[in-house]
Amino acid sequence: MEITVCRSGDVALLDRYMGSPGATSFHARRFARQEAGECTYLVAWLDGRPVGHAEMRWTGCAAPEVTLDCPEIGGLAVWPEELRSRGIGTELIRAAEELARQRGLTTVGIGVGRDNPRAVALYARLGYRPVTDYLDRYAYQDHDGTTRECVEACTFLLRELLPGHLDVRHCSNSSR
Ligand SMILES: CC(C)(COP(=O)(O)OP(=O)(O)OC[C@H]1O[C@@H](n2cnc3c(N)ncnc32)[C@H](O)[C@@H]1OP(=O)(O)O)[C@@H](O)C(=O)NCCC(=O)NCCS
């Protein structure tokens, strides 16, 4: 398994193997944000296929309730389901944290749905502590052109980064 920063040619592969709901490509949106310097979009690969992703949002959490000045890990997922619980999600989080360390940052946040106890348990194991509840609002376009507005009850979690040096090979542009 390898983790790399998303390149333009990866978006089509992400759409193919890790599709978004409706007609909106979440991957294209995240790549556009990366191009604008707002995030780093990390992709996990296995045998040349994308199997996971995480968006390190340097701009932090957009919800007004979250007033902390720290980057936020978002868009975390591993697919297909049979590849979960093998450590891929953990490696994506650790890679995102390492990017923050490289920028001299000392805290990282992550938002989690209050109906997602397994993800909450994972983040707690990785050292994230709850700070505040908020509503995550986002929209996407359905296949019939209808815009779907979503509101999710979430908790924002925070982790203090310890000094440490991971092998950041996974954040290079090495070939797969
Ligand atoms: C959450 C997620 C990214 C974790 O990735 P992962 O590769 O399974 O993570 P790891 O193998 O490093 O850690 C596994 C732990 O993740 C947690 N987890 C959360 N949701 C899970 C799911 N649907 N299936 C399996 N594990 C899940 C569990 O605590 C699990 O621990 P366990 O193996 O002891 O049950 C992944 O399970 C996933 O894509 N879930 C659906 C999307 C999602 O909920 N994203 C998080 C939004 S905040």
Q: Give the total of beta strands.
A: 7
Q: What's the N-to-C terminus distance?
A: 10 Å
Strand content: 35-45%
Biggest sheet descriptor: 7 strands, mixed
State the strand order across the main sheet.
Answer: 1-2-3-4-5-7-6
The rough form would be described as globular
> Number of helix segments?
4
pLDDT < 50 runs, ≥5 residues: 167-176
Helix content: 10-25%
Domain tally: 1
User: How confident overall, as mean pLDDT?
Assistant: 92
Q: What is the SS-derived class?
A: alpha+beta
Rg on CA atoms, Å: 16 Å
- The H/E string reads EHHEEEHEHEE
CATH architecture label name: 3-Layer(aba) Sandwich
Please write the CATH class name.
Alpha Beta
* CATH superfamily descriptor: Gcn5-related N-acetyltransferase (GNAT)
